[in-house]
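Z., the sequence and structure:
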Amino acid sequence: MDRNVAGIILAGGQSRRMGGGDKPLLSLGKARLIDHVAARLKPQVATLGLNANGDPARFAGTGLPVIEDTVPGHAGPLAGILAGLEWAAKQTTCRWLMSAAGDTPFFPDTLVERLAAATRERPGAIAVASSGGRWHPTFALWPLGLRDTLRHFLVDEDNRRVSAFMERQGYVEVEFPMIEAGSQKIDPFFNVNTPDDLAAAERLLQSLRP
């Protein structure tokens, strides 16, 4: 656990490729996607919240505080990150926010540790995870001091691209290895977008069990 880091699970997407609804509430094994994500992230952070809009009661089983977007219009993951930054600044003594997508159940349990280490060499920079030569902007460690700048970018400039904000502010990438699953190598940031992805995640979950 890093006591300087709060965590936010981004669960506010509209899940169009899955046919709508709350994708993080879909079953994976004996739990839900959101439960797998929370179980991985919670031990790595001092406190954990969940970003989602609408009736928060549907996430009551997670035991996590539900933080709504603070800007209107379903503005995407950047709005969830902003909501998380503002929540962490008001409700915690943390200095950083770790964001994680609610549909990515296999990300590393060393995520926060390694991203935090990278920021020591680049103070003030956003640390973002990458794997297989591709970065994952929703898996990043954000300084809480960026919240006003992010609000201006999102609201006044009407720019919703997470990667564009990172490129403007400065970031450091941290590469994570692939998951060894038998003869296969699986991206640890593999996310569930479609029914076929969910079936693949189920197979991977079974293969990783001892």
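The radius of gyration is 16 Å. Residues 15-19 have pLDDT under 50 and may be disordered.

Let me know what you think.
H.
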